[in-house]
Amino acid sequence: MQTIRRILVVVEPQLPEGLALTRAKLIAGVTQSHLHLLVCDKKGDHSALLDDLRSSLTLEGFSATTQQAWDENVHQTIITIQQAEGCGLVIKQHLPDNPLKKAILTPEDWKLLRYCPAPVLMVKTDTPWTGGIILAAVDVGNSDHEHRTLHASIISHGYDIAGLAKGDLHVIAAHPSPMLSAADPTFQLQETIEARYREQCKNFQAQYHISDEHLHVAQGPADVLIPQTTHQLKAVVTVIGTVARTGLSGALIGNTAEVVLDTLESDVLVLKPDEIIALLEERVAQR
Question: Which of 100, 122, 217, 262 makes a 20 to 30 Å CA pair with 227?
């Protein structure tokens, strides 16, 4: 996060509290990043609002530009401008979708998480980050190259946020439940499964300097355990990865980041592996 030089801030004129901009100012104050404010709207004229925001930011010592744009839909507009402006982070305030509407149409914020090449910070609360707990969610049981690089990014960003917020980084890792039908009896015993998983975690802890007190190993599905742990720790930010699953499998299964977005009681930073980012950037370039 320290390498980010430009941040895209999605301004929602109908949300006067401006939570996304508040978070952007906190990050830019540490990283000295340029702020590019974007209103996604093809109808109304929001130049007065954007001019006021830019003037205020300039007076506060920030470097800022503004833009109103529209490209087919909200998530595509954000991605188009993110690529054009070379922004290394997108910050947007999240509002839960109507459950009925979500069952019929894929929410715009889900699409943004799937297709945006840059990390996306979804702001959900006005809780101050200062002195808070940052929770990073990892899948230590998956040790393929894609997951290893994703874990490295998740932990790195988690430490960066903990540093700028003067907070503490904690890690949640979920392990599978016992399988009564497993051929190997050891996979039928919860104690054995947890012991094996904790053994796997030791190398991870040593690599990223995570103490036992800051590692939370639990049994069950990640989309349940992550919100539970966030709630228990009163975490202010949850850092999570996504493999940007698309197509029919994505529609049926859904990424954990999408599933937990509405249930998490914290801001959410969503990251992707480098390989996925490259593919998404190529997709944007081909439009």
Answer: 100
Residue at a domain's end among 73, 93, 113:
93
**Integer Cα distance of 247 and 98 in angstroms:** 23
- Distance, in Å, from the CA atom of 267 to the CA atom of 249, rounded to the nearest integer, reads 27
Structure tokens, 235: 């975490």
Q: What is the torsion angle, in degrees rounded to the nearest 10, for the CA atoms of residue 259, residue 130, residue 82 and residue 46?
A: 100
- Do 266 and 150 reside in the same domain of the chain? yes
**Number of structural domains the chain divides into:** 2
In terms of phi and psi (left: phi > 0; alpha: psi -120 to 50; beta: otherwise), the region of 72 is: left
**pTM greater than 0.70 (yes/no):** yes
Distance in angstroms (rounded) separating the CA atoms of residues 280 and 251: 18
Euclidean distance between CA atoms 205 and 214, whole angstroms: 10
pLDDT in tens, 219-243: 888 888 999 999 999 999 999 987 6
Asked whether residue 73 falls in the same domain as residue 155, the answer is no
* Sheet strand arrangement including 133-138: 64-69, 34-40, 6-10, 89-93, 120-123, 267-271, 237-241, 133-138, 168-175, 215-219
